[in-house]
Amino acid sequence: MNIEIVNGYKEYNGKKVLEVGKLSFKEGFVYAVLGLNGSGKTTLLQCSSGLEAFSQGEVLYDGNSDINSVRKNISIMAQKPYLFNTSALDNIKAGLKFRKYSEQSMEEKVADYLPYFQIEEILHKNAKKLSGGEQAKVALLRTAVMETDITFLDEPTASMDIESTIRAEMLIKDMASDKRTVIIVTHDMYQAERIADYVIFLDKGKIIESGEMKKVFNCPEHNLVKQILKRGVEL
Amino acid sequence: MSVFIELFGEFYGEILEVVFLSIFVSLTSTFIASVVGIVIAVPTALKKFKLKKYIVRLSETLMSIPPVLMGLLVYLMLSRKGPLGRLELLFTPTAMIIAQSLLVFPIIFGLTVSTIGSNGKEIEKTCISLGAGKKETIINVVKECKTQLLSVVAAGFGRAISEVGAVMMVGGNIRGTTRVMTTYIALETGKGNFQQAILIGLVLLTVAFFINFILHRFKEERE
């Protein structure tokens, strides 16, 4: 599924937080949204995913602006994912339950994705009692097993260790190779370089540079992007 | 202590009737107010609309409405010349349940709205992001907040079981029909029978303690 944002404008209490003229996300690619704190990355993700509405402008999903008709084809992992007060396994199955999958189908789907993180030993623990990194893995698996056409991930690896981050990146790459569109917000430049096909740099609610990852990383045009890439550190 | 035991034996039958009616009226009204209150409060807490803050302020104001005023309003509604007079509910346990339900409703509604608050919005967004429908979202919000909601219900029950003004006015404190623990205490105190009043007071406290104990036990199990 392709997404197109047309004249997207978002304000909170009269204050502009995001202004996107035109932005497209094509099927089967990983897009990394980068920018400093408060640059509007999460707002862009929330408005693109339909969790929040733009104050002006619209989002088209394969040309369709009715978010409710495509809702079940979109999955989102929030920056601080909320896990239900039940086992990790039930949390992973939650999206499948909402989609009325049979118990056997759910077990099969979960089994397909568990090898990415090997978290069998925590599956029956209460998700609320897991560590931050474990919760992030459960939340990412919960998002992945739904196999939606579009997946939005807001800093999914922020609380993961290095090994888990690499595993999460493998999962994200595999999702995109399955013709799914993945849009990931990250502060990690190296992560963007490893997994993204396209990058979008935001500053003060505006896109300052976007395009193919290799092109932007090799020949940045905007001064801020140049500075960030030159420093070569995490934003 | 022996005086109390003697008195307890003497008035055993009547006390038992009074205690059971108190529990029945209070539990029924708390149940009705909780079901209606929570069902209305959850969408109110989750949605943004213009009148929301006024509705919340109104419910907060109604939380502290004097029971006698609520009793008067229900009395006027149910009295023979009132709009619901032909139902002949005045001075019946049903009238007491109506009055108490109306007293408890703002407490359940107001506390549920503030309890659900930002946590509820987070749960709602999670449910939406997982593809849940509206009904499933509301069910999940209630499920996730059930321990806090049990505290809300306990607060509502506290209001119901301890209330005297409204049930006195619409129930009439009729022996064997509408006499409950609080109205019994008021009556016996007026007659100067302090020992009976204190005895019923102790029973009232014990009943309130056990019902709250059960509610909190249930809450702890869920946690």
Explain what the structure shows:
- The complex is a heterodimer of chains A (235) and B (223).
- Chain A is of the alpha/beta class and 235 residues long.
- Helix content of chain A is 36%, strand content 26%.
- Chain A contains nine helices and nine strands.
- In chain A, helix 6 (162-177) links the parallel strand 6 (150-154) and strand 7 (181-185).
- In chain A, helix 3 packs parallel to helix 5 and helix 5 (132-144) runs parallel beside helix 6.
- Chain A is globular and about 50 Å long.
- Chain B has helices spanning 2-10, 12-46, 52-63, 67-78, 93-129, 134-144, 146-162, 165-171, 181-191, 194-222.
- The A-B interface holds A 49, 51, 71-72, 74-78, 81-82, 84-85, 94-95, 98-99, 142, 146, 148 and B 122-123, 125-133, 136, 140, 143-144.
Q: What structural keywords apply?
A:
heterodimer; A: 235 residues; alpha/beta; 3-stranded antiparallel beta sheet; 36% helix; 26% strand; B: 223 residues; mainly alpha
Subunit organisation of the chains: heterodimer
**Average residue-wise pLDDT of chain A:** 92
The secondary-structure element order of chain B is: HHHHHHHHHH
Structural class of chain B: mainly alpha
Q: Considering DSSP H and I runs of 4 or more, what fraction of the residues of chain B is helical? A: over 70%
Helix content of chain A: 25-40%
Radius of gyration of chain B (Å): 20 Å
Main β sheet profile of chain B: none
Largest sheet strand order of chain A: 5-6-7-3-8-9
Write the layout of secondary structure elements.
The complex is a heterodimer of chains A (235) and B (223).
Chain A (H helix, E strand, L loop, with lengths): L2 E10 L2 E11 L4 E6 L5 H8 L7 E6 L5 H4 L3 E4 L10 H11 L4 H11 L18 H13 L5 E5 L7 H16 L3 E5 L3 H7 L2 E6 L2 E7 H6 L4 H9 L4
Parallel strand pairs in A: 3-7, 3-8, 5-6, 6-7
Antiparallel strand pairs in A: 1-2, 1-4, 8-9
Helix pairs in contact in A: 3-5, 5-6
Chain B lengths: L1 H9 L1 H35 L5 H12 L3 H12 L14 H37 L4 H11 L1 H17 L2 H7 L9 H11 L2 H29 L1
